[in-house]
Specification:
The protein contains seven helices and two strands; from the N terminus they run ααααααββα. The chain is globular. The protein has helices spanning 4-12, 18-28, 37-48, 59-92, 100-107, 128-139, 185-193; strands at residues 155-158, 168-171. The longest helix is centred in the middle third of the chain and has 34 residues, at 59-92. By secondary structure, it is mostly helical.
Length: 200
């Protein structure tokens, strides 16, 4: 099974036919997809300027989408290195019980679904790397009451998400499942009182 970097080389390789280059970009999302596979694909297509169903994408646009994905992946991998180092130090210092951020991080190891978007057509518009930087910054400071990505105040509790956890606060502005550790208990309680209907 090809890794992310091997697939990225295929996307860039002008000797590969266009269908393989597009397929390789899609396969990259099996290794790293911050919004989930479908929402991340929709995001990359919108940002690079091609239709998600387009089978003959301009190679320049494919590479632009790949570059955005690679930049975001670099941001996330750097965070994971820092996270692992912090946990090693905490264990060395005798702190064996992980906190709520650690529990959340365990579910997103590798970067899949870090900013899960259950509806693949509703996701942040900013570059992926910027979204991840905002999310990481929120994980490293005291909990707040708004979405860490778009600063949206309308958080609604949603059940039956196609993700783990399968329920949680969803930002109605940018569509992400907001990580619980970045929200205060009051913000979580407010979101629970406002529930989104279960999708059909």
């Amino acid at each position: 099974m090809a890794g992310f970097r091997s697939l990225a080389r295929q996307v860039r390789d002008p000797r590969c036919d266009l269908a393989l280059r597009r397929y390789s970009l899609r396969k990259c999302l099996e290794r790293f997809a911050p919004y989930g596979h479908r929402a991340t694909w929709d995001h990359l297509c919108a940002r690079a300027g091609f239709d998600p169903e387009d089978r003959s994408v301009d190679p320049v646009r494919l590479v632009a989408a790949l570059e955005e994905l690679e930049e975001a992946r670099a941001v996330w991998l750097a965070y994971e290195v820092e996270f692992a180092e912090r946990r090693r130090k905490e264990k060395h210092d005798g702190l064996r019980r992980p906190g709520s951020v650690d529990d959340w991080h365990r579910l997103t190891w590798g970067g899949f679904g870090v900013a899960w978007c259950d509806d693949p057509r509703v996701h942040p518009r900013e570059p992926l790397a910027e979204v991840l930087r905002r999310l990481i910054a929120a994980l490293e400071r005291e909990p707040g009451s708004v979405c860490p990505v778009c600063r949206g105040e309308r958080l609604m509790w949603r059940y039956d998400l196609d993700h783990e956890p399968s329920a949680g606060p969803v930002c109605t502005d940018c569509g992400i499942l907001v990580p619980r550790p970045v929200l205060t208990p009051e913000a979580l309680a407010d979101a629970r009182r406002t529930r989104l209907p279960v999708s059909a």
